[in-house]
Amino acid sequence: MKRLIKSRVTGLYFGNDGTWTTDREQAQEFSNTPMAIAMHLEKQLGECELVLQIGAQPSAQYDVVLSLSPKSYEKGFGSSLQPGRSEGLGKEQQVQATRRKLHACCE
Q1: How many folded domains does the chain comprise?
Q2: Domain span at residue 14?
Q3: 12-43 pLDDT, tens per residue?
Q4: What is the pTM of this model?
Q5: Distance in angstroms between the alpha carbons of the first and the last residue of the chain
């Protein structure tokens, strides 16, 4: 299964080099969902979707699309996963804390 981040605004995919691309083949593939969510939080990518491509080829019938936005984190995981809620921590420490919480709740 491929896990890709796609911008809701532009329809572009988050690329291997950290830029946006129209080509799914050039999109960064994440080994698990928590890593994709952590990248979205770390890079502050805005309104995006997590595309779970089940088959070898993209398919509207089988692909699963999940919302990635600060609002979806609040609703789905609770405010404890928002990076800004870790009082007294630097940005990198907040990202690491978020990753630990995601791994604990999602694996």
Answers
A1: 1
A2: 2-106
A3: 999 999 999 999 999 999 999 989 998 998 99
A4: 0.69
A5: 16
